[in-house]
Each structure stands twice: as C-alpha cells, then as structure tokens.
Design a protein that fits this description.
The complex is a heterodimer of chains A (116) and B (114).
Chain A (H helix, E strand, L loop, with lengths): L4 E3 L2 E4 L5 E6 L6 E7 L5 E8 L2 E4 L8 E5 L5 E5 L8 E8 L10 E2 L3 E5 L1
Chain B lengths: L3 E4 L2 E4 L5 E7 L5 E7 L6 E6 L5 E4 L2 E5 L5 E6 L8 E12 L2 E6 L3 E5 L2
Parallel strand pairs in B: 2-11
Antiparallel strand pairs in B: 1-3, 3-8, 4-5, 4-9, 6-7, 7-8, 9-10, 9-11
Classes of the chains: A mainly beta (116), B mainly beta (114).
C-alpha cells in the first residue's frame, strides 16, 4: 500500500514569504506527526495530531509556525514570514494510533525547505 | 525537555566488521525504536522493543531494551556497504493516560572506511 507522501519534495523561498508543506499519511492512520531535521542533526518534534486535534503543539518553534489537519487525513504545516534559520528538512510521520504501547511511526521522504 | 544521548556520533565501517551503537537517557521509556535514514529519504523503522530486557533481532541487526529502561543498544553483524546511513534511536514517552510521543537521539552516521 502507499506510504506517507509529502509535497513538495523541495521548496526554495525568499525570506519573509509564507510556505505551506503538505503531508498525506498512510490511509487509516489516526496519528500524524511533524518533525524538523536540520543539516546533520536529529529529528526535532514540532507537533502531533490525533485525528484532527493537536494535543501537543509544544515543539512549534514560534508563532510563525502552525499546522492543521482536516478529515483525519491530510495535514498542512504553514510557516509564515520565513527566516533563513527555518531552512531544514521537514518530515511527516503517521502511526496507526498514538495511544497504547505501540507507536510505530512511518515517515515520509520529507520536504527540503531552503530560505534564501 | 527529554533528551537521548546517542553514541557514537559517527563511525567508519569496513565490510565484515561488527558495529555497535547505543542510546542512554536520564528518563525511563516504555518503548525503544531504532530507525535508519538513507540520504534524501525519511527514517525507516528497523526494530521495535517493548519490554525491559527484551532482545530482538532482524536479520543481521540485534537490539536490546535495557533492564533499567533508560538505555538501548543496536548491533549490526558482518556489516556490508548498504548498511551505510544514519541510525536513530527513539524512546516513546508517555504523556499520561496512554498517549505518547517519540523522542529521538541525534543519530549515528555510518560511513565506509576509506
């Protein structure tokens, strides 16, 4: 079956512009996660959705970052007034559930964002 | 916030060598996961560990969930060139109730010995 997909795969933007990154999770997965990975670094948690609600937004770096999820499926991560330090790979993952002992997250290929 | 200490940060492998890496934390985790990331790809799950003391294998990979629930190691036996990549450990942290989220280590980068 189809895995997690993300679009665009690459995005180059100018400082100050807004960008939208899209994630299509695996069908039937109720939990969806956004991470940021800077060059040579590990994964920094941004936000997680259970269904359409976001119980944990604690990782969002500033109020320029927001995310939504509709229909329990597609999610969009929006970065307003982008800054150069926002340049990174943004990874999306989904899991069947967030609850319980099993939380095996399946990752998409990521969107590489470059802010000039 | 919670942090995982993963080591080594990087290592070079020669074909046929065994490789070992580990993660430690000051906090207790309920689940440990090991992922591998190839260039331009998202991380792929290798092994999941659910019980303290559990030892699990997946082909040439073996991972253990430490008894204290604060550490885990991953071994790769008889390494081959396709083992090159970045390996991440991740611990599942419960919020309370039954919801949780993964905390990732900073990764171990495996490269081929020149």
């Amino acid at each position: 079956g189809a895995g997690v997909s993300q679009s665009p795969s690459n995005k180059v933007t100018e400082k100050g512009k807004d960008v939208e990154l899209r994630c299509d999770p695996i069908s039937g997965h109720t939990a969806l996660y956004w991470y940021r990975q800077s060059l040579g670094q590990g994964l920094e948690f941004l936000i997680y959705f259970q269904g359409n609600s976001a119980p944990d937004k604690s990782g969002l770096p500033s109020d320029r970052f927001s995310a939504e999820r509709t229909g329990g499926s597609v999610s969009t991560l929006t970065i307003q007034r982008t800054q150069q330090e926002d340049s990174a790979v943004y990874l999306c993952a989904s899991s069947l559930f967030a609850a319980g002992a099993v939380n095996e997250q399946f990752f998409g290929p990521g969107t590489r964002l470059t802010v000039l | 916030g919670q942090q995982l200490n993963q080591s080594p940060q990087s290592m070079f492998i020669q074909e046929g060598e065994d490789v070992s890496m580990n993660c430690t934390s000051s906090s207790i985790f309920n689940t440990w996961l090991w992922y591998k990331q190839d260039p331009g790809e998202g991380p792929v799950l290798l092994i999941a560990l659910y019980k303290a003391g559990e030892l699990t294998s997946n082909g040439r990979l073996t991972a253990q969930f430490g008894i204290t629930r604060k550490d885990s190691f991953l071994n790769i036996s008889a390494s081959i060139p396709i083992d090159v990549g970045i390996y991440f450990c991740a611990g599942l942290l419960y919020y309370g109730g039954s919801q949780g989220n993964l905390i990732f280590g900073k990764g171990t980068k495996l490269s081929v010995k020149p």
